[in-house]
Amino acid sequence: MIRAIIFLLLYNYLIPITASNNTLIITQVTDDSPLTNTAKDIIHTAYKKLGINIHFLRLPAERSLVLTNQSVTDGELFRIDNINLAYPNLIKVPTPYLVAEHMAFSKTKQFTVKGWESVKPYRICFRIGYKVAEHNTRGFNIVLVNTNQQALHMLNSNRVDIAILNRLIGLNSIQSLGFQDIKMLTPPLQTTPLFHYLHKKHEKLAPAVNCAVREVKNIKLSDYCIDVLNKFNH
Q1: Residue 209 and residue 52 in contact, taking contact as beta carbons nearer than 8 Å
Q2: First vs last C-alpha separation in the chain
Q3: Among 1, 119, 151, 210, which is least packed, fewest CB within 10 Å?
Q4: b or e along 1-32 (b: 16 or more beta carbons within 10 Å of the residue's beta carbon)?
Q5: Number of structural domains the chain divides into
Q6: What does the pLDDT read at residue 32?
Q7: pLDDT the model gives residue 139
Q8: What's the average pLDDT block by block, 10 residues per block, for the chain (234 residues)?
Q9: Range of 22's domain?
């Protein structure tokens, strides 16, 4: 019954996609940005090498995990390591193909970031489903919103002191919103590799996807991203 209800809620999205049995639905939880577009390019090219069509479906972060875990959708564009511990029906494609730099952004505060404890004294905002931020700010004064843009609006209106976003997504969103007073604090709060995930029903496909991702990522990534990513491969 729950699965049927979910399908009805996503009817307008899924009907044109599921018309082909050879199309996988891969969810993305961030708006298009340099990071997201690079990820989509890598994953799309990898599946194309395998002769598989994919469709990217934009969903809220937490809902995306629930739907993929329930096999309503087929995979996650990118997630942090070990997300499958909380969502056991997900299989990690083992090659990390992007790196996320988790940054603190502020309008009124200026300080050198020294890990997550350095933002504990402040009012913090980030989007629901941002697992790295959720895990590292337990007990902090946090405000949760639905999107990265909402977090930046909260920050720009001085309703919070710090917004936490991925570096590239944050900088891109600030520019598109025209917020000139919001600055990125450095260094990163944390840097983590990102992985593609599939529902376990595609377990036999995962090794081939992994080989294709490994081949494609070194062609598609910038030199900077490769240098950072290599830290996690050695």
Answers
A1: no
A2: 46
A3: 1
A4: eeeeebeeebeeebeebeeeeebbbbbbbbee
A5: 2
A6: 81
A7: 96
A8: 45 42 88 86 95 94 94 96 95 94 97 97 95 95 95 97 94 92 97 96 96 86 50 46
A9: 2-98+193-230
* Residue 60: strand, helix, or coil: coil
* Residues 183 and 219 grouped into a single domain: no
Retrieve residue 165's tokens.
Answer: 């976003």
Pairing of β 53-58 and β 162-166: unpaired
Question: For position 35, what pLDDT does the model report?
Answer: 83
The b/e string for 162-191 (b: 16+ C-beta within 10 A; e otherwise) is bbbbbbbbbbbbbeeeebeebebbeebbbb
Query: Are residues 6 and 94 part of one domain?
Result: yes
Rounded CA separation 114/64 (Å): 31
How far is residue 74's CA from residue 227's CA, in Å, rounded to a whole number? 30
Tokens of 224: 């900077």
CA distances from 43 to 103, 109, 149, 204 (A): 25, 38, 25, 17
What does the pLDDT read at residue 34? 80
Q: Looking at residue 85, which CATH number applies to its domain?
A: 3.40.190.10
Strands (E), 9-155: 23-28, 53-58, 75-80, 90-92, 98-106, 124-127, 142-145
pLDDT of residue 222: 53
Closest to 122 measured CA to CA, from 66, 63, 164, 174: 164
3-class DSSP state of 194: strand
How many CA atoms lie within 13 Å of 87's alpha carbon, on the beta-carbon side?
Answer: 27
Which residues lie below 8 Å from residue 131, measured CB to CB, with a gap of 6+? Answer: 79, 80, 83
Tokens of 162: 């710090």
